[in-house]
Design goal:
- The chain has about 900 residues and is α/β, with parallel strands linked by helices.
- It is built from 28 helices and 38 strands.
- The chain has an eight-stranded mixed β-sheet with strand order 31-32-33-34-35-36-38-37, with helices on both faces.
Length: about 900
C-alpha cells in the first residue's frame, strides 16, 4: 500500500510557515509559537511580505526567497492567495502543504479546486483546508493552533474536527497518554482518512488508531484502508450524527430500516473497526489501547478491597459480554495462605477493607500466576486504615516485576483508585497501567481490548464458499429488470418479482396476476383443485404497503368468496388511493406453516456506501419492532450467519419447546443469493422479501417488492458500481496453456486458499523465499497467510495458479495500488521445483493486463540485485530497471502502462 509523500508531510526535515504574524490572537502567531515551543529540530523559516522579522525570526517575503527548500509548508494566509502559494511552493520543491486557512469553498470554480490543480502539477499532497493542523511528537513538530502539544506515545488520532483533536490533546495531557501523531484533516481536499489509515497502519510507533468521523467521502477507499489497518492494530471510531438522520420516508421496509447511522455501523463492523458512542468512551479506549495489548480471552479477575464495587464491576462485565474468571483450586489455596479468613473466596477477590500494601501485593501475584484468567483489574477504595498511594506503589512494583519475567506477552492489568489524588494516577500511568475513574470505565476499557482481538480473529477467519450447485440465471434476471426500465417503470410487477426470485433459486409462493374478478376466480379454481385456500392482494405499482388500504384478504375457500373479495379490494383501493394506478389483484395459494418464523430480508441503497443487505424480524409491524441488522455486500455464508446472529429474532431460529430449529443455513443462503443478485444487477435499488417464512423444511418468500432504477457509478475502479466492498472478480478466471502443453487454471485468490498456500510454501526453497520477502522466513503463521488470502479486491489483487492435473497451487502473483490509484506494486512467487516452465511470464502478463483494466498508469516493484532471473524477465516485459539510491542491493523496476 502506498502513502505517497505522506512521510514528507508528517515527518519533514524542513518546514516553512506562510502567513506567520506578530499579532497576538492570530492563527499565524499561535502556530509560530507552537512550532518554536515544540523545538522542531529541522530547518524552519517564515514567509510574510509585510515583515522582515517576527519575534526575532527572519521572515522572507516569498517562498522562493527562503534560504532552503521547505519539505512542508504550513499555510495560514488568506484563502484567495492559497492556490498561488501552493504553486510557488511546488516550484521550490515542497512535497506538501497543511492548509489551515478556511474559506476556500467547494466544487468546480472554487478556490479549493484551484489549490488542488496547483498541487497536482508538482505531485504535492495537501492536508486541509480548514483544519487545526498537525502534531507529530516524534519529530517535535506542532504545526497547529492547539493549546497544548501532546507527549510522544503510541496512539494516532485522525479527526475531521479540529475542536475534537484539541480536546483529545487536553485530555491526554492530564492522563499522561502520548501520541505518535494527531492530524486534523479539515475538508479533505486531498489527504483523507483512508490515506492516513494507510500511513499509521504501517507506522511502527503507532500501536492503535483513533478516528473522529462526521462523514465518509470515498466509501470504497475507506473500507479498503480501514480493513487493512484493522488487521494490524486496533482502529477505534467515534462518529457524530447518530440521530441526525431521524426517520425518513422510504419506498420499502428495508429502505426505512437502513438509516444512515445503521449503515455506518454495518460498514465499521465489516471493516473490523471498533465503534464507540462518545468521547468519554474514546478516552477509555485511548487509556487502554495506548498502554497494553489485547488479552487472549475475556476472563477478567477482579481484586478489590470493597465488595460492593467488585460486584458492580462483575455486573458491568457480564452485561458487556465478558466472563468473570473462575479461581482454580490451586490459586484459591494460595490466596487462603496470604489473605485473612474473611476474604470472599471467589471472584471478585474481596480482600476486605483493611487491606494493606502487602496484602494487595500477595493477592495480585497469585492472580497474575493463575492460568484461569486473561487479565486482572485492581481496585482500591480509600480508607483511613491503609494509604492509597502506598498500595499503588506496591501494585506497580508487582506488575513491573511480573512483566519483566514474562517471555510471552504479559497479561493486561487495569486499575481503579476511587477518588484518588492525581499523583496516584500519574504513578499508575508511569508504570503503563491503564487507570480509570470508575469500575464501569475500567471494565469497558478491558472489553475494548477483547473486541479488538475478536475483530482480528474474524478478519483472519477462512469463510466457507457458497454451495457449488448455486448457479443463478443472471441473463434472465437482467432481462426482467431491463424490460421494466425500458417501460419507464420503477417497480417490478408481482409476476416479474416471482421470475426474478426463481432466477436466483429463492423459493416463493406461486403468484398469478388477475385484472378483474373473473380472471381471479379462474386462477383460484386451479389452487382449490390442489386442496389449498386462496389469498388475494392488491396489485399496484403505487401502493407499496398493501395492508394500508386493506389490500390483503386471506383464507378464501370458494369462487364466490374470491369474486366478492376481489371487487371489494379494488373498490377500497380506488376509494382510498384514487391517484394510484391499479392493475388488478394477485392470486396466491394460502401458505399455512404453523411453526414458521416471519422474517424480512432485503436490499437498500445508501448514498454513501451503496447497496446494503438487511435482515430482521418480519411482518406488518417490522419498523415498529425494529429488530434488524445490516451488512455490506458481498456476503459469504460466514458473513451471512454473523448478520443473522446480530438480531434478537436469531434466537427464535433455534429449536425451543415443541418448535424445531429452522433448516441449517437456509436463511443465510438466501442472504448470500440476494447479495449476489445486487452484484449482478446494480439497477435493483431496493428489495423486500417480507415475510420470508422459515422452518425446519426450509424457507419460502410469501411477499416481495423490488424497486429499480438506473444506477450511476458510485465508486472508482472496476466491480459493481454500487458496492463499497468489491465482490469476488470471477471474470478473471482463466484456463491457460504454458510451455510443453502444461495447463494451469488461474483465478483471483480466495480466503479458502490458505491451506493451499501453506502447502505450496513447502515446495519453495529458503533462497527463493529470501528473494521474495527480502529475508529468510522459516515459518508462516495463520495470521500472515490470512492477510495474503483475504483481499477486498478494491486496491489489491492476487492471482493463484493451479496445476489442472494435480490441482496443486503452483504460483501466486499480486499487485497493490497506491492510495491515489495511479500505480501498483507487484510481487510474485512460484514453486521452486516448477520454475523455468513459463508460469512466471504468464502470471506477470496477467497482472499487467489486470492493472491496465483498472486504469493504473504504472506497475513498480523492488527486486534484489542478485535476482537475475526476475530482472531479466522485467526487462523483457518492458520494465525500466534502476538501482535504488538508498538500498544498493535493491533494484527499482517500473513499467509505464
Amino acid at each position: 500500500m502506498s502513502t505517497y509523500r505522506l512521510k514528507n508531510l508528517l515527518s519533514p526535515h524542513s518546514v516553512a510557515l506562510v502567513g506567520a504574524s506578530p499579532r497576538h490572537g492570530s492563527v499565524g502567531r499561535a502556530i509560530l509559537n507552537n512550532i518554536r515551543k515544540a523545538q522542531f529540530m529541522g530547518e524552519f523559516g517564515l514567509v510574510n511580505p509585510r515583515y522582515h522579522e517576527i519575534d526575532g525570526i527572519a521572515a522572507a517575503d516569498s517562498i522562493a526567497k527562503l534560504s532552503f527548500a521547505p519539505e512542508l509548508v504550513v499555510l495560514t494566509a488568506p484563502a484567495h492567495t492559497i492556490a498561488g502559494l501552493i504553486d510557488e511552493a511546488g516550484r521550490r520543491g515542497a512535497a506538501g502543504a497543511v492548509i489551515v486557512s478556511a474559506g476556500l469553498g467547494h466544487g468546480p470554480g472554487s478556490l479549493a479546486e484551484a489549490a488542488e490543480r496547483a498541487a497536482q502539477k508538482y505531485g504535492m499532497r495537501l492536508i486541509g483546508p480548514n483544519c487545526l493542523g498537525i502534531m507529530m511528537p516524534g519529530v517535535s513538530l506542532n504545526a497547529s493552533f492547539s493549546a497544548h502539544m501532546p507527549a510522544a506515545g503510541h496512539l494516532a488520532l485522525i479527526s475531521q474536527s479540529g475542536a475534537i483533536a484539541a480536546g483529545m490533546v487536553d485530555w491526554a495531557a492530564q492522563r499522561a497518554v502520548g501520541f505518535s501523531g494527531i492530524v486534523s484533516i479539515g475538508d479533505q481536499l486531498d489527504v483523507d482518512i483512508a490515506d492516513l489509515l494507510d500511513y499509521f497502519a504501517l507506522d511502527e510507533k503507532t500501536h492503535a488508531i483513533l478516528l473522529y468521523i462526521e462523514a465518509i467521502k470515498d466509501a470504497r477507499k475507506f473500507m479498503s484502508a480501514a480493513r487493512a489497518a484493522a488487521r494490524i492494530k486496533p482502529v477505534v471510531v467515534v462518529k457524530s450524527g447518530r440521530m441526525a438522520q431521524g426517520a425518513r420516508a422510504a419506498a420499502t421496509h428495508t429502505g426505512a430500516l437502513a438509516g444512515a447511522d445503521a449503515v455506518y455501523d454495518a460498514a465499521f463492523q465489516r471493516a473490523g473497526i471498533l465503534r464507540v458512542s462518545d468521547l468519554r468512551e474514546l478516552f477509555d479506549c485511548a487509556e487502554t489501547l495506548g498502554r497494553i495489548k489485547s488479552p487472549p480471552g475475556k476472563r477478567l479477575a477482579i481484586l478489590t478491597n470493597g465488595g460492593g464495587i467488585g460486584v458492580l464491576a462483575v455486573d458491568r462485565l457480564v452485561e458487556l459480554g465478558g466472563i468473570p474468571a473462575a479461581l482454580s483450586p490451586g490459586i484459591r489455596e494460595k490466596l487462603n495462605a496470604v489473605l485473612p479468613p474473611t476474604w470472599s473466596k471467589s471472584n471478585p477477590v474481596d480482600i476486605v477493607g483493611d487491606a494493606d500494601p502487602a496484602r494487595y501485593a500477595a493477592a495480585l501475584e497469585a492472580l497474575l500466576a493463575d492460568p484461569e484468567n486473561d487479565a486482572v483489574l485492581v481496585m482500591n477504595v480509600q480508607t483511613a486504615i491503609a494509604r492509597a498511594d502506598e498500595i499503588a506503589v506496591a501494585v506497580t512494583g508487582v506488575v513491573q516485576k511480573y512483566r519483566a519475567g514474562q517471555r510471552m506477552a504479559p497479561k493486561p492489568v487495569l486499575a481503579v483508585w476511587v477518588g484518588a489524588e492525581p499523583s496516584i494516577g500519574d504513578l499508575l500511568s508511569g508504570a503503563g497501567i491503564p487507570n480509570h475513574p470508575t469500575e464501569g470505565d475500567a471494565v469497558r476499557g478491558f472489553m475494548h481490548l477483547v473486541r479488538h482481538r475478536e475483530v482480528v480473529e474474524a478478519l483472519a477467519q477462512v469463510p466457507p464458499a457458497m454451495p457449488s450447485e448455486f448457479a443463478p440465471d443472471i441473463n434472465a434476471a437482467r432481462q426482467i429488470v431491463a424490460a421494466a426500465l425500458a417501460d419507464g417503470r420503477s417497480w417490478l410487477d408481482p409476476i416479474e418479482v416471482k421470475r426474478l426470485l426463481d432466477a436466483y433459486d429463492i423459493g416463493a409462493v406461486p403468484t398469478f396476476a388477475a385484472a378483474d374478478a373473473e380472471e381471479a376466480v379462474t386462477h383460484a379454481n386451479a389452487i382449490f383443485a390442489q386442496g389449498a385456500t386462496v389469498v388475494l392482494k392488491i396489485m399496484s405499482r403505487d401502493i407499496v404497503h398493501k395492508s394500508d388500504v386493506g389490500g390483503v384478504v386471506l383464507n378464501l375457500t370458494s369462487a364466490d368468496a374470491v369474486r366478492k373479495a376481489t371487487s371489494e379490494i379494488l373498490a377500497r383501493a380506488r376509494s382510498l388511493r384514487p391517484e394510484a394506478r391499479i392493475s388488478g389483484v394477485m392470486v396466491q395459494a394460502m401458505v399455512v406453516r404453523a411453526k414458521a418464523r416471519e422474517l424480512i430480508l432485503g436490499l437498500a441503497d445508501d448514498p454513501t456506501f451503496g447497496t446494503v443487505v438487511v435482515f430482521g424480524r418480519g411482518g406488518t409491524a417490522v419498523e415498529i419492532i425494529n429488530d434488524k441488522a445490516l451488512a455490506l455486500p458481498p456476503l459469504d455464508l460466514h458473513l451471512a450467519r454473523s448478520l443473522i446472529e446480530r438480531t434478537r429474532v436469531s434466537r427464535l431460529l433455534r429449536a425451543y419447546r415443541d418448535v424445531p430449529a429452522v433448516k441449517q443455513d437456509a436463511v443465510a443462503t438466501v442472504l448470500v443469493k440476494l447479495a449476489q443478485m445486487a452484484a449482478d444487477i446494480p439497477d435493483i435499488r431496493g428489495l423486500d422479501i417480507n415475510p420470508l417464512l422459515a422452518d425446519e423444511a426450509g424457507v419460502l418468500a410469501v411477499d416481495a417488492r423490488v424497486v429499480i432504477g438506473r444506477v450511476e457509478r458510485k465508486f472508482r475502479g472496476s466491480g459493481p458500481a454500487n458496492f463499497a466492498v468489491r465482490p469476488y472478480p470471477s471474470q478473471w478466471q482463466r484456463h491457460i496453456e504454458v510451455k510443453d502443453g502444461w495447463r494451469v487454471f488461474v483465478r483471483p485468490i480466495r480466503p479458502e486458499d490458505e491451506p493451499a498456500i501453506h502447502e505450496m510454501l513447502k515446495h519453495v526453497t529458503m533462497q527463493d523465499l529470501r528473494l521474495r520477502f527480502f529475508a529468510p522466513i522459516k515459518e508462516f503463521s495463520h495470521e500472515f497467510i490470512a492477510r495474503l488470502t483475504q483481499l477486498d479486491y478494491a486496491r489489491a489483487m492476487a492471482f493463484v495458479a493451479f496445476d489442472e492435473t494435480t490441482n496443486e497451487l503452483v504460483g501466486v502473483v499480486r499487485i497493490h495500488s497506491d492510495s491515489i490509484y495511479e500505480s501498483g506494486e507487484y510481487a510474485i512467487l512460484l514453486r521452486s521445483d516448477l520454475k523455468g516452465r513459463g508460469l512466471g511470464w504468464t502470471l506477470m502478463q496477467m497482472i499487467i493486463e489486470y492493472a491496465k483494466s483498472e486504469g493504473l498508469k504504472a506497475i513498480s516493484g523492488d527486486v534484489l540485485t542478485e535476482n537475475s532471473v526476475m530482472l531479466a524477465m522485467c526487462r523483457s516485459l518492458g520494465f525500466e530497471v534502476k538501482s535504488d539510491p538508498q538500498e544498493h542491493d535493491i533494484c527499482n523496476v517500473r513499467l509505464a502502462l
